[in-house]
């Protein structure tokens, strides 16, 4: 993929390095001279300019990108970049960083955001996930489709032990996408048995999260 990242601070550079290591083409857009350091991520294309300006985005060729990531430390900037990328340049996928959780409600498809990533929320979710067994933890929200990535860890005494995935009577708007078991990542098949300690990852609408709990016996 070709990915454009608005904001070449510590977060933007870290994302760029990870994506480059994954074999993707990356372009970093930075408006501040002090942050414009092409030597910091040599494999990326660098653009000096304001990503909130249509002219900068045009000159960078952002319409050729598969994904735009708004990763600055300013929520207002991230929302403007997201809106321009989606509405003016029809970028297929827009991911935006949420700096202040109080602004998270703004990060919707109305502002061109497909996925909002809130570091405080993710950290809180990781803490909950680490200590919560037998309860549903929301890890990530996909704003455009109003769907969530949620996790539940089966306790040691789960009644589901040994039962196949096909026995789970999940609601219509929920799907079990992955089972994490030790070091393994399992793409669940109907005949796969469940085990105590399994971390089950679901994609589901918020309305059916309680139904998932019921299907798992909680």
As residue ranges, the low-confidence spans are none
Mean pLDDT, rounded to whole units?
A: 87
The rounded distance between the terminal residues' Cα atoms is: 41 Å
> Strand-and-helix sequence, N→C?
EHEEHEHEEHEEEEEH
Q: Would you tell me the structural class of the helices and strands?
A: alpha/beta
Compute the number of strand runs. 11
SS strand fraction: 25-35%
The total of helices stands at 5
**Biggest sheet character:** 6 strands, parallel
Helix content: 10-25%
Backbone shape:
elongated
Radius of gyration computed on alpha carbons? 20 Å
In which order are the strands of the major sheet placed? 3-2-1-4-5-6
Explain the layout of strands and helices.
Layout: E1 2-6, H1 10-21, E2 25-30, E3 45-48, H2 54-60, E4 67-70, H3 75-87, E5 93-98, E6 115-118, H4 119-131, E7 137-142, E8 147-153, E9 174-181, E10 184-186, E11 199-205, H5 209-215
Parallel strand pairs: 1-2, 1-4, 2-3, 4-5, 5-6
Antiparallel strand pairs: 7-8, 8-11, 9-10, 9-11
Protein name: Trk system potassium uptake protein TrkA
InterPro entries: K_uptake_TrkA, NAD(P)-bd_dom_sf, RCK_C, RCK_C_sf, RCK_N, Trk_Ktr_HKT_K-transport
Pfam family, one: TrkA_N
């Amino acid at each position: 993929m070709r990915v454009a990242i608005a904001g070449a601070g510590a977060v933007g550079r870290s994302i760029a390095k990870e994506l480059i290591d994954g074999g993707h083409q990356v372009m970093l857009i930075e408006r501040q001279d002090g942050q414009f350091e092409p030597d910091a991520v040599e494999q990326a294309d660098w653009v000096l300019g304001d990503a909130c300006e249509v002219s900068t985005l045009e000159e960078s060729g952002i319409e050729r990108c598969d994904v735009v990531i708004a990763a600055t430390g300013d929520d207002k900037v991230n929302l403007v970049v997201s809106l321009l990328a989606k509405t003016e340049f029809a970028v297929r996928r827009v991911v935006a960083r949420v700096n202040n959780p109080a602004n998270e409600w703004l990060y919707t498809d109305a502002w061109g955001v497909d996925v909002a990533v809130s570091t405080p929320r993710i950290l809180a979710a990781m803490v909950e996930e680490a200590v919560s067994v037998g309860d549903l933890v929301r890890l990530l929200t996909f704003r455009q489709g109003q769907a969530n990535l949620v996790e539940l860890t089966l306790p040691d005494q789960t009644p589901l032990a040994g039962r196949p995935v096909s026995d789970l009577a999940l609601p219509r708007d929920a799907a079990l996408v992955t089972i994490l078991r030790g070091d393994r990542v399992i793409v669940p098949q109907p005949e796969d048995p469940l085990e105590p300690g399994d971390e089950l990852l679901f994609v589901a609408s918020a309305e059916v999260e309680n139904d998932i709990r019921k299907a798992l016996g909680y």
